């Protein structure tokens, strides 16, 4: 890539697995399987390019109302990648953190997730946030209730510390694949000044080169954070 301004934090909405599979006359579960493979490929590439933080929307709170058969397939993929295939995550050599309410997962999968986060806790070069059963509105309401229960008023800084992304800088760039142009309850508080990039590619076909194009596009943008140029 030519000389560019790299985002510190990229977040991905990995949409389009189902449609990608359907176009190939394959079941949706196959799309998710290829989606996770692409997740490790694209996120590794982001870290190789020098991005420090990557966050992925693996399962939204609302996804939990999908048919049981599809949810079972998604849970099996989570079991696989935090279990037998955890090397695929660990070899990225970044700290892995899971955001969201994982109490909906089987207990052994919750334990596997804990083990992977412990095994990677000392990697300090990069941070990989995987959002599972995550919803931004739920996260905000939980934070408000926490503040109320502590009996204190919050300001922006102390409120951020009550979110699941406490201590993590906001995403500079949010990339959504699959052609839809919305945030779907992802990082709503943190996305206040994120640059948004929408790709028509389905997630399993989003390539390393597509990621580079998105970063190049980001790099050419003028981020003013509500200020004026040079202000
Ligand atoms: C959106 O595609 C994608 C999802 C709901 C799930 C994404 C999850 C993964 C890639 C796997 C996560 C696994 C681990 C181990 C972290 P869609 O099904 O909504 O696609 P569609 O819009 O074409 O129907």
- β-strand number: 6
Oligomer: single chain
Number of helices: 8
Ligands present:
farnesyl diphosphate
The helix fraction, in percent, is 40-55%
Task: Please report the distance between the alpha carbons of the first and last residues.
Answer: 30 Å
Q: Briefly note the structural class of the backbone.
A: alpha/beta
Strand order of the largest sheet: 3-4-2-1-5-6
Q: Describe the largest sheet.
A: 6 strands, parallel
Taken as a percent bin, the fraction of beta residues is 5-15%
Spell the H/E element sequence.
EHHEHHEHEHHEEH
Low-confidence stretches: none
Shape: globular
> Mean of the pLDDT scores?
96
Q: From the alpha-carbon coordinates, what is the Rg to the nearest angstrom?
A: 18 Å
Molecular structure report:
This protein has 231 residues and is of the alpha/beta class. It has eight helices and six strands, in the order E-H-H-E-H-H-E-H-E-H-H-E-E-H. Helix 5 links the parallel strand 3 and strand 4. Helix 1 packs across helix 2 and helix 2 packs parallel to helix 3. The structure holds farnesyl diphosphate. Farnesyl diphosphate binds next to helix 1, helix 2, strand 2 and helix 3. Homodimer. InterPro entries: UPP_synth-like, UPP_synth-like_CS, UPP_synth-like_sf. Belongs to the UPP synthase family. Keywords: Magnesium, Metal-binding, Transferase.
């Amino acid at each position: 890539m030519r000389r560019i301004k790299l985002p510190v934090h990229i977040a991905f909405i990995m949409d389009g697995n189902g449609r990608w599979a359907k176009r190939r006359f394959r079941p949706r579960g196959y799309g998710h399987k290829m989606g996770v493979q692409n997740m490790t490929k694209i996120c590794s590439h982001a870290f190789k390019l020098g991005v420090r933080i990557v966050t992925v929307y693996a399962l939204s709170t609302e996804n939990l109302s999908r048919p049981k058969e599809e949810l079972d397939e998604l849970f099996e993929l989570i079991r696989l990648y935090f279990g037998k295939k955890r090397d695929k995550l660990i070899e990225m050599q970044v700290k892995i953190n899971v955001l969201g309410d994982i109490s909906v997962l089987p207990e052994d999968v919750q334990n596997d997730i804990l083990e992977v986060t412990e095994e990677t806790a000392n990697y300090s070069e990069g941070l990989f946030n995987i959002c599972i059963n995550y919803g931004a509105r739920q996260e905000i309401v939980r934070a408000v209730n926490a503040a109320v229960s502590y009996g204190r008023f919050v300001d922006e800084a102390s409120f951020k510390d009550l979110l699941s992304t406490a201590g993590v800088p906001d995403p500079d760039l949010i990339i959504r694949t699959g052609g839809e142009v919305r945030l779907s309850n992802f990082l709503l508080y943190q996305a206040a000044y994120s640059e948004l990039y929408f790709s028509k590619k389905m997630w399993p076909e989003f390539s390393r080169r597509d990621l580079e194009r998105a970063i190049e596009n980001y790099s050419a943008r003028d981020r003013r954070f509500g200020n004026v140029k040079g202000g």
